[in-house]
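**Tokenised fold:**
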Amino acid sequence: MNKSASFLPVVEHVKKTSGTVVGTGAAVLVIHKDQVVVEEYWGKQGTAADARLVQADTQFHVASVRKSYIGFAVAYAVHHGYIHSINDAVTKYLPELDSDLLSQTTIRHLLTHTHGLNLLGDEMIREFPAGSSWSYRNVGIEMLTQIVFKTTGKTIAQIVSGQVFEPLGLRESGWYGHFHERLVEVIRLPGDTSWRTSDSTDGDQMNMYVSTRELAYWGYLHLKQGIIGGKQVVEKEIIELATSLQSPSTIEKDLPQNGFLWFVKDLPAAKTEIGEMVPKGSYQILGYTGVTLLVIPDHDLVAVRMFNSFGSPPGYDYLADVRGFGDQIMQCLEELDS
């Protein structure tokens, strides 16, 4: 059977999603056993009549997928001893924060979305005791970027660029303060007020754009445990830290499970964001633009889907759709092996 043809249902799944969300272009890329078996682009980068076609060097806004790069920087800081342990209290590194409010809150809690903190206007509040539940709040991400900078003296962007982008020659991944022709226009829902831009290029803000092929390569680097072309480009221990289960055992078993911000598949969990058919040991990162990167080590596979949408239109079940993406890949693998 032609391997590329066997993954056509994945392409159709992504095309169906692109027709459901509010956007103008999309892409999908699958690497299986070191071979690119699917790579398709369609639509335009924006709404203008003369908008550039989506193509291999088009860079999509990856939204929260950026957190996998932040997780990498934290793993780098831990591996090299800048951070002693992820079980250290946050206030050990950020003593200026409210020690009463952050009592018992550790770096592990920040990495696994179990810190229980949120912002109410400019005030930080506690929604639940650290380590007792799970909630997706960006206040923990901001603390992590501060801790990385204070301990290493480097920004997220400097660490990732020095460790990955420069050694691998990646020039279509980064944080951008100014728009250029390869960046997509991000299409928002009418009345959306949550979108924001930034001119920071430090890697601490939600203004990261990556091409489909380089996001797949980022996943491939993790799949191969840091080895590219027979060379250990990134220490294996950094990758293992980032992608292994780090969620505290104190949370309820059906809550999502995380590594260093990656969603990881371990024990069955009702609220996981990874498809039911996807095997244990897999990991995934996703963003509000619908961008998804899924790594399935058991099948030597990396899959990426890209959109230039932002948010979920009425009637669109984002969680069911992203789970369906992973399950469709697994169905294709089953057909390929049969």
Remarks:
- The chain has a mean pLDDT of 95.
- The chain is about 30% helix and 20% strand.
- The domain at 3-337 is CATH 3.40.710.10 (Beta-lactamase).
- The first helix runs from residue 3 to 6.
